Amino acid sequence: xxxxxxxxxxxxxxxxxxxxxxxxxxxxxxxxxxxxxxxxxxxxxxxxxxxxxxxxxxxxxxxxxxxxxxxxxxxxxxxxxxxxxxxxxxxxxxxxxxxxxxxxxxxxxxxxxxxxxxxxxxxxxxxxxxxxxxxxxxxxxxxxxxxxxxxxxxxxxxxxxxxxxxxxxxxxxxxxxxxxxxxxxxxxxxxxxxxxxxxxxxxxxxxxxxxxxxxxxxxxxxxxxxxxxxxxxxxxxx
Length: 238
Hints:
It contains 8 helices and no strands. The longest helix has 41 residues, at 183-223. The protein is an all-alpha fold. The protein is elongated, with a radius of gyration of 20 Å. Keywords: Signal. Residues 1-26 form the signal peptide. It comes from Halopseudomonas pachastrellae.
């Protein structure tokens, strides 16, 4: 493997990561605390570069699983709400997308961009539908009740992701220079930085859609005497 090419790739991803950090600050998201954040602080303090890289890769794997879980929860929540409001085609499309994230391995930038757009489109559909919807009963009301824990789980974890990814990218950038003499490790870190940067770039749009949909859902559900106290707590905490 060409070490010069690896060096160039790392330089490019470091620059991209710095851009992402700036975007996160613009949205006020880098102040969000995460459980993973404290652990990440120790990832580059060891004496062994190999051990440091291993720790970074484990943290990256954990972050990707958390991202996939959040996407899965929020897409299911949107799908159930869309079903309840009569948007059956959109509900089916959204549930199909959610199933990919249930596996926990989505990192492709095209897929993430596609589903970011889908999430934003769903937000508008749900807001419009709920603003005009009458009280629901039967299967439609049951679908809304089923959506509540998915909204709650998605918001609880999702709002921590921006801070966690920004922290990981910063730590990975710091470790990049020490890996230039190890092409295999450098290639792995380059790939992981690419995945993390893609997600970090899309998080502001995703978080906006998740928050907007959750707020619309909570307003409608509260007006129809559904218990959304757990979702209210999750939203208030962020």
